[in-house]
TrEMBL record:
Segments forming domain General stress protein 17M-like: 5-69
Protein's name according to its UniProt entry: General stress protein 17M-like domain-containing protein
Family annotation (Pfam families): YflT (PF11181)
Length: 200
């Protein structure tokens, strides 16, 4: 079993990855999506899907993973739309955590599935700053296909993103920091666009 993960600055790209993974025969139960999307949050907010069990239960069915998207609040990250195993385990960790310990939700869930801890911190920070994370737990025989799909949809270059964060003084994800507002997210996206335009 392997965990294949990609971070996307565009929520629509992340959704396209989920569809492509499902189209390739990877079970919806093996895929997760966690991120910000204002339109989706508005439409799903009234459904009360913040409980981890509710998110996990919503994943099944004929509509695929995206049909189960629900609203989840993660300390240090804020409100996200999420579905799948990562959302359910992160929500479970949050529900059972003591104050200040809930940051392990996404990070702990990813590292438990074999994701490097340094990378898990960048993924969590990316979600905090407005990106969307797609992660699939796949059999070894499916790993190459899953990796190709994630790569084909142009995920964030994790090393470059880590360097960008560190240039601004970031070291690792810290759930005690204030959550990013929508305005903060827009500013971060502008900053990243300007940074990418300056690169050779």
């Amino acid at each position: 079993m392997q965990t294949v993960t990609g971070l996307y600055d565009n929520h629509a790209d992340a959704r396209a990855v989920v569809r492509a993974l499902e189209d390739a025969g990877i079970s919806s139960d093996s895929i997760s999506i966690v991120g910000r999307d204002g339109d989706e949050r508005e439409s799903k907010a009234g459904e009360g899907a913040a409980a981890g069990a509710g998110i996990g239960a919503a994943v099944g069915g004929t509509g695929g993973l995206l049909a189960g998207l629900g609203l989840l609040a993660i300390p240090g990250i804020g409100p996200v739309v999420a579905a799948g195993w990562l959302a359910a385990t992160a929500a479970g960790a949050v529900a059972g955590a003591v104050a200040g310990g809930a940051a392990g939700g996404i990070i702990g869930s990813l590292t438990d599935e074999g994701v490097d801890e340094e990378d898990a911190h960048v993924y969590a920070e990316g979600v905090r700053r407005g990106s969307t994370l797609v992660s699939a737990r796949v059999e070894d025989s499916e790993a190459e296909v899953a990796q190709a799909i994630i790569k084909d949809h142009a995920p964030v270059d994790l090393d470059a993103r880590r360097a960008s964060y560190r240039e601004a003084g970031w070291e690792r994800f810290d759930a005690s920091l204030p959550e990013y507002t929508e305005e903060d997210v827009l500013k971060e996206r502008d900053r990243l666009r300007q940074t990418s335009q300056m690169m050779p």
